[in-house]
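HUMAN: I'm a chemist; might I ask for a sequence paired with its structure tokens?

ASSISTANT:
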Amino acid sequence: KLDYAGFALDVTDLGTLGAFISVLSMDDMPVRTLQQPQGTGELFSAGSIVIGLSYARNLTEEFSIGFNAKYVGENIWNESAKTFAIDIGTQYVIPFLNEFRLGASISNFGPKMKMNGRDIIQTTTVGSGEGNLINTDLQLDEFELPLLFRIGVAVDAIKTAENRLTIAADAIHPNDNSEYVNAGLEYTWNEIFFIRGGYKSLFEEDGEQGFTLGAGINYRFFDAFKIKIDYAYQDFGRLKNVQYISLGVRF
């Protein structure tokens, strides 16, 4: 289960400040060892957490830039790893081309992670006979964060007082997989009702993700606040169907 929460605040003459938290959790799983492959009777859990601060501002009417600084932690049973990372993104708008948007970003730029914990210490028998047990440390490799470089474009193919149709696509270069492309459409009526469709991970080798479909509503109540509710369905291959639900409140 993946949970996410965040907020943003517009500060006059300064920009937009924000904070967020993302938590990935899993059901408990049985502990298995080489000696007891059917399970020891114990259970273990695994998960990760990301906590970050955000800042963004318009440098001009057409050009904007934003940053995330975040703490990244992972755990599996008694082991854990932690590091810090940053995201950087920019967007440029060309007004006379139906507000053609060009964006680029780098995500998860930071030092490597390494698991540590009490299970790293193992008891090993040296030689023969009793009393020849010593403690040894397992040497675990460091591993890199999933660094992503992304470039994308979006354009309003149709834009009237009531209707808007946006076409968008982005290309992603990850450090741990092949390059791939995401593409999609969004239709909105009066900036209240939204219908979306697309395809993820085009051209990715052995990719599991695929067709996506979603809808949303963005409605203002009594001129006091605006509520945004979105739902999305995604074909995720061997992971079957994945569904996303998000709720946003804007004052």
